[in-house]
Amino acid sequence: MIEKRWASVMSSVETEVNRSLEWLGSERNEVRRMTALRIIEVLCNSDLVSLHLYISKIFTELRNPLRNQRHETRMAAACTLGACMELIPMSERNVRNPWLNFLYEELQRNQQLESVEGYHGALLISQELLQHGGMYMQSHFGQVCNMALKLKEYRDPIVHRAAIALLPVLARYSPQEFTRVNTGSSESMMGRACNYLITLSRTSDRDRAAAFLALGNIAQFCSTEYRSFLEPTTRAIRDALIQRAKMRIPPAEADETVTAVLQTIATLATAMGPALTRYVRDILDLMFTAGLSQALCDSLLVLEREVSQLQPAIQGRLLDMVSIILVGVPFRPSQQSLDDLEQRMGTMSMHYATAQNGHRSGAAANGNTANGASSRDAYAGSVSDSTSLVVRAANNIHVTNDTLVLALRTLRIFDFSEENLSEFVRNEILRYLTNSSAAVRKEAIHAVSHIVMADPLYRSMAGAGVEVASEVVQRLVSAAVIDVDRDVRLMAVQMLKKGICFDFHMGKAQNIQDLFLLLNDEVFEVRLT
Q1: What angle is formed at CA 51 by the lines to CA 45 and CA 57, rounded to 5 degrees?
Q2: Average pLDDT over every residue of 354-375
Q3: Cα–Cα distances in angstroms (integers) from residue 278 to residues 66, 202, 305, in the given order
Q4: pTM above 0.85, yes or no
């Protein structure tokens, strides 16, 4: 209600602020204290003019929550502090500097407590000063760096992780100071931090994810100086992925470390660009061993954009994994001569076999993923030991509706226009338009529409793509008319409207006749579209 600035609420802002400050100052109830912190944070983020009168009281009352015994309270107080600091205009030094001095003195007092609460509060205040204090912390940069490096090995995990999280913030605040080798020291702050984080990523299972994320962020802010750490970082990433593969953790299972590793690879690609090429080639297959996930797709999208030399290798592996999930076997572009030879010899193509041979697509497309896995299991049993890591990982994925949705979305978000997906779309993907899950049907409509609309092959009125485009249009029209789910029908109609290449095929008499039925649809959006 505060964010919507309702008149009835805005009139009571003064009352709410006073009550929140009272709860912060004297209330021992932790629930009320957390509520007060949240209310003040939201009010500060709303940038209310009347709130400027309370800045001094807010700063004063935040001292105790920042050293509170509960970790959650300290974190909430730090968020509130950052929101309140944004209210102080950067240009008004006479107003701003006294409060920044007050916060830095509070930081020092917390540090002198030599307790978990004090150290954690000092680290949180340091982070907010670096992010919202402008150039004020330039004169205190060395002291904060030394504090973070001192506390990075503190016995308490909360303080330890807060110190690690502060290192990238320091690198972002002043890359020059962070990478400078000071007089009397053999290495820079960055060197000490990176060497420690690389060692931590190899030796600590608990902090491996945090270490990788910190390394990636430091590389992003100090890209030129980070080149000397690129090889040991990618070697640590490779070792972490190999260790996970040896543990035989099921692919696609939630794993904080793998998510952090994939995010770090993407950050390194953004920071280093093509310089990362030779290092990523060694870990590309290992990235797929964790299975298909949103984190993997996000990382590969960044790699494709920043390291274009890897695009063919990335797309080939992705198509294999997606095909195994959707069809049961790795992807192979349609080759007419080879397909005809297999047909004359009586051997069914492993990639585009029909459902009568127990093919996965027939069962999975109808929602029976358990029975549909038979062909994939048979294929997995027939492959040799030299099968790629990608195929092995894909064969071990437990396929659910969420997995099918992600596989179909992958076909949509990556540009596979260099591959011939005609037979793959016609014989396999279109089957998912009749899946028992509405989410799968909706994503299948989006995927096939995107493939057809993105490839110039399907825009011509003659040639190999005409039959595929015609069948896609026919199936989309059928879904728009008869699907029981309103969102699926709306998606089908929107894709038909959006796809210019569909107009030629929609002109058929049967399609026009079916489209007239949509004028009587129970959903207004469908009728309007």
Answers
A1: 110
A2: 46
A3: 46, 21, 16
A4: no
